[in-house]
Design brief:
Blueprint lengths: L9 H15 L7 H11 L3 H14 L4 H13 L7 H20 L5 H9 L13 H15 L3 H14 L4 H13 L3 H14 L5 H12 L3 H14 L4 H14 L13 E5 L2 E5 L14 H19 L10 H20 L8 H12 L2 H8 L9 H20 L4
Antiparallel strand pairs: 1-2
């Protein structure tokens, strides 16, 4: 079972509708059944909306809004199904409907997030190994999907009493209060979920949605940053901060600190190809030469020395941070020797990152590849403050 709930804020819905507008402009927007179905969906009454959406999906097979809402409603009602096999079947049906909408041209963020979240086999699990807790959560989910938010909240509260470490109970309780527009109380529940597990992004993101709905944009910004720090390599964790930026009409500043040279392995070993113009530009680009030679050394022998238990070379945080430190040190010497006339803007940012102790945070958040991502969790466990500082001071603009 996939335990995922997308908070459909007005901004998210606006982005969704704008993404589908080109495909729905000729459809009957005033049709009473269609209007009623979408109203029920927007009110989170997915159980009521489902039969109407089933009917409309047949009548209007090219209406991407209806097709997507049908897929989402099928998915959002799965958590309330008690029978595991039926729950799995419905999850698989939701995935098939999402894929159908994608084939028709739907490329919305919501669709992609759900597709990424649903296992190919519709994998199912329980909320709890405790039968009573599981039953309470299923009843609460059924109430939520039927639009009975007060009853749902009572269920989540009961589950949390029975199991104070059940993340979903705290998360879903906060989400229910969000739907009830009780934003401050929702924050208390999200804080409880974060206390249970600070390394899951969802409660931070939902809390940010709640703060944004309450008009507290600066506070929301902080929660969305925390969501990225918790899990930076998922689409979900970035949705909140992207919505926030869209809402506030701001753009991120993401450094791109890249060498003009090329280091590539080949049949004979490793080849360093230099940019012949780097030294002549007088912008500090020549500082990359020693660093790129270090990259060759890591690939040929140093990785084995530093990571004796790993069978194959991979790009690591340790290697890349050493490489950028060498660039910064070489650049500082070039500036001291007055060999730099017009400093490359990205190299200027590198010096700023080094002075602030944020080089590793930059690498992990903005320049990570498949190898480097393997070093994220150990770094986050020790330096969460640096990751947050990087996003706060460098990437995400303040209002």
């Amino acid at each position: 079972m996939v335990r995922l709930r997308i908070v459909l804020t007005p901004v998210f819905l606006l982005l969704l509708m704008s993404g589908l507008a080109a495909h729905t402009s000729a459809l009957p927007a005033t049709d009473d059944d269609r209007k009623h179905a979408l109203e029920l969906y927007d009110q989170n009454k997915f159980t009521e909306a489902l039969p109407l959406l089933e009917k409309l999906a047949v009548e209007f097979p090219k209406d991407l809004v209806i097709q997507e809402r049908l897929a989402c409603s099928v998915f959002f009602t799965t958590n309330g199904i008690k029978d595991p096999e039926l729950r799995k079947q419905q999850t698989l049906r939701a995935r098939a409907l999402l894929l159908h909408a994608k084939e028709l041209g739907d490329n919305s963020n919501l669709l992609q997030i759900l597709l990424d979240a649903i296992p190919l086999d519709g994998g199912d699990s329980s909320f709890s190994s405790d039968t009573k807790v599981e039953q309470v959560m299923r009843k609460a989910e059924s109430a939520f999907e039927s639009g009975d938010l007060s009853k749902a909240l009572e269920g989540y509260a009961q589950a949390l009493v029975l199991d104070p470490k059940l993340y979903e109970a705290a998360l879903f309780g906060g989400d229910t209060l969000f739907k009830m527009k009780q934003y401050d109380k929702a924050g208390d529940w999200f804080a409880r979920a974060i206390e249970i597990d600070p390394n899951r992004e969802t409660a931070y993101r939902y809390w940010g949605d709640s703060l944004m709905a309450a008009g507290k944009m600066s506070e929301a910004r902080g929660k969305f940053i925390d969501a990225v720090v918790a899990e930076p390599y998922t689409k979900k964790s970035n949705v909140g901060i992207e919505q926030w930026a869209e809402r506030n009409k701001v753009r991120f500043t993401v450094p791109r600190i890249q060498s003009p040279n090329s280091v590539k392995p080949n049949d004979k070993g490793i080849t360093l190809t230099l940019d012949s113009t780097a030294l002549d530009r007088n912008d500090g680009s020549g500082a990359w030469m020693i660093a790129d030679m270090s990259h060759m050394l890591w690939q040929s022998e140093k990785f084995k020395q530093e990571y004796p238990n790993e069978k194959e070379y991979r790009h690591s945080l340790k290697e890349e941070s050493e490489r950028l430190d060498l660039v910064a040190e070489s650049l500082q010497q070039m500036i001291k020797d007055k060999k730099v006339k017009h400093l490359d803007p990205n190299l200027a940012i590198l010096l700023k990152l080094k002075d602030s102790g944020l080089v590793e945070a930059y690498i992990l958040i903005s320049a990570a590849d498949q190898g480097i991502t393997q070093d994220y969790i150990p770094y986050r466990d020790q330096h969460r403050d640096k990751l947050r500082q990087y996003l706060d001071e460098i990437v995400v603009p303040k209002l």
